[in-house]
Write a structure and sequence with these properties.
With about 290 residues, the chain is of the alpha/beta class. Helices cover about 45% and strands about 15% of the residues. The chain contains ten helices and ten strands. The strands form three sheets. A four-stranded mixed β-sheet has the order 1-5-7-8, sandwiched between helices. It has a four-stranded mixed β-sheet with strand order 4-3-2-6. It has a two-stranded antiparallel sheet with strand order 9-10. Strand 9 and strand 10 form a beta hairpin. Helix 6 crosses helix 7, helix 6 packs antiparallel against helix 8 and helix 6 runs parallel beside helix 9. The longest helix is centred in the middle third of the chain and has 25 residues. The model has no long low-confidence stretch (mean pLDDT about 90).
């Protein structure tokens, strides 16, 4: 199973040779098996990548993430037809009943709020109110408990923080971390035969990753935890640095609890995607295995 991530932040030429990823930079050459690589972040405008490597990455299911001039992930390349039952799984996904969609979304929201509560507890904050809210989430979350929990969560986690303030370093870090995590989830759901554009709750006609955004929800607090650590002692107006970006991409290698065992966040995205397929097939949200912080 792929387990490595590659973050390219300096001028480089990426190519493939003998099933190896080859990275050439001023100080030399580095190689590694492509089959070990799960994601590549191209975080410099002075990176070139060969068509042969792109084709090899698509064949191996590697997510290639591109960034813009502000070093924010702006797009990704994902493979087509990575699952032996692609058409069958996609047809099942598209044909899901509305009650099942609502119950699956309920499970995702509950897991998200519980992980937010765990994030608060780890930061030394009071989380009883969020735990109480998690018990109020009904099928489809018609009362929008998720939004109410989020408002309280951000007030408790950070001081003087507004989620819409793009100039705040904490928001810059959150957005970067979420984008990398979203790419990892998109990679996992494609590998398991699902179509990322057809979501459970997210239904935007302009969003190619609605399902990835659904499954992202319970994973978000893992980024929040990392940002809380990185933001300690930093000025809110400070810039997003290379060290920040590397640390945020490294969250995919952090530990989570899933199905009674400790695995990396990256592996958890794949397990959660597999379980989502099983839950859809059996019409049972109870089969949806989600990570715990």
């Amino acid at each position: 199973m792929a387990w490595k991530g590659v973050h390219i932040s300096r001028p480089a030429r990426l190519s493939s040779r003998d099933a190896q990823l080859v990275v050439n930079q001023e100080d030399g050459e580095v190689t590694m098996p492509i089959e070990d690589v799960a994601w590549i972040v191209l975080d410099s405008p002075q990176v070139t990548i060969s068509a042969a490597l792109i084709a090899a990455c698509m064949a191996a299911g590697v997510a290639v993430i591109f960034t813009d001039e502000r070093h924010t992930p702006s797009g990704m390349a994902l493979p087509f037809h990575r699952h032996h039952r692609q058409a069958a799984v996609a047809a099942m996904q598209i044909g899901l009943s509305q009650p099942l969609r609502k119950r699956l979304w309920q499970a995702l929201v509950i897991a998200k709020i519980e992980n937010q509560a765990a994030c608060l507890e780890r930061a030394g904050r009071q989380a009883d109110s969020l735990l109480a809210m998690a018990k109020q989430v009904a099928s489809g979350d018609p009362d929008n408990v998720e939004a109410r929990a989020a408002r309280e969560y951000w007030q408790l986690l950070f001081t003087g923080f507004t989620r819409s303030d793009e100039a705040d370093l904490r928001n810059k870090m959150l957005n970067y971390g979420y984008a990398v995590l979203r790419a990892a989830i998109a990679r996992a759901i494609v590998a398991n035969g699902l179509l990322p554009c057809f979501g459970l709750f997210h239904r935007s006609a302009t969003n190619a990753f609605n399902l990835a955004d659904d499954l992202l929800e319970p994973f978000r607090p893992f980024v929040d935890r990392g940002v809380n650590d990185l933001a300690e002692g930093a000025e809110p107006a400070a810039p997003l640095t290379l060290d920040h970006r590397r640390a945020l991409a490294g969250i995919l290698n952090g530990d989570v609890r899933l199905q009674g065992q400790t695995v990396s966040v990256l592996i958890a995205t794949d397990i959660a995607s597999q379980c989502l397929v099983r839950a859809m097939e059996a019409s049972s949200p109870a089969l949806l295995c989600l990570p715990k912080l």
